[in-house]
Design goal:
mainly alpha; MetI-like fold; 9 helices
Length: 228
C-alpha cells in the first residue's frame, strides 16, 4: 500500500480533484434544471406539470450507466448520422468525456433536485404566496422573492446530501473514459496487480470526502434549526 501511495498518490489525488470538479458541475447544472422543472411542477398549468413529470420519471427510470452511454455515444450518433444535423448546421457533434459526464450528471441530479425543490416549495405555508399576491406582487415575483428563498433555506441540507450522491455517481462515468478516481484506480490496478490495496485506498479517499460533506450537512441543518 505504501508503494502505491508513493508511486501513484499524486495521480489518485488529481483524479479525486477531477471527481469533485465533475460533481460540482453536475450539481450546478442539476440545480438549474431542478429549479426549472421544480417550478414547472407546482404552477397551475397542466402542460407544465406534465412536462416536469415526464422528465423526472424518465430520468429517474433509466439507470445512470445507460444514460451515460446514451449521452456519450448515442446522442452524437443521433445528431451526426441519424438526423444528419451535422450537414444541416455544419457542426459535427463530438462530446468529450467531461462534457458528456457533466450532461449525464446534470440530467440525473436535476431530476432529483426537481423533487427536492417541489417538496420544499409545497412545505411553505400557502399563506406566504397569498400575502405576497395581496400586496400587489405578481405570481413569479412572489415566488422568487418570498416563497423560493424560504424553501431553499430549508432545502440546503438536502442539496448537500444530493451533492454527496452525485459525487458517488461520478464513479459510474468511468465507463466513458473520464479520468475520475475509479477510472484512474483501474489503471493503477492494471499496472501493479495490487487490487485489494488500490481499492482500499480509493475507498478511504471517498470515505474522507463524503464524511466531511456529511458533517457540513449536519452543521448546516443545526444552524438552520437554531435560526427558526
Amino acid at each position: 500500500m505504501v508503494r502505491i501511495i508513493e508511486t501513484y498518490g499524486q495521480m489518485l489525488t488529481v483524479a479525486m480533484g477531477h471527481t469533485l470538479l465533475l460533481a460540482l458541475w453536475g450539481l450546478l447544472f442539476g440545480c438549474i434544471l431542478g429549479i426549472v422543472f421544480g417550478l414547472m411542477s407546482v404552477v397551475d398549468n397542466k402542460i407544465s406539470r406534465t412536462v416536469s413529470a415526464i422528465y423526472v420519471n424518465l430520468i429517474r427510470g433509466v439507470p445512470m450507466i445507460v444514460l451515460a452511454y446514451f449521452v456519450y455515444f448515442g446522442f452524437p450518433l443521433l445528431w451526426n448520422n441519424i438526423l444528419n444535423l451535422d450537414s444541416l448546421w455544419g457542426v459535427k457533434l463530438v462530446l468529450s468525456p467531461l462534457t458528456a459526464g457533466t450532461i449525464c450528471l446534470a440530467l440525473n441530479c436535476g431530476a432529483y433536485m426537481s423533487e427536492i425543490i417541489r417538496a420544499g416549495i409545497q412545505a411553505i405555508d400557502p399563506g406566504q404566496m397569498e400575502a405576497a399576491r395581496s400586496l400587489g406582487l405578481s405570481y413569479w415575483r412572489s415566488m422568487f422573492r418570498v416563497v423560493l428563498p424560504q424553501a431553499i433555506k430549508n432545502m440546503i441540507p438536502s442539496i448537500v446530501n444530493q451533492f454527496i450522491i452525485t459525487l458517488k455517481d461520478t464513479s459510474i462515468l468511468s465507463v466513458i473514459g473520464f479520468p475520475e478516481l475509479v477510472n484512474t484506480a483501474k489503471n493503477v490496478v492494471a499496472s501493479t496487480f495490487l487490487s485489494f490495496q488500490t481499492w482500499g485506498i480509493v475507498a478511504v479517499m471517498y470515505l474522507v470526502v463524503i464524511l466531511a460533506l456529511q458533517q457540513v450537512a449536519k452543521a448546516l441543518e443545526r444552524r438552520l434549526n437554531r435560526g427558526r
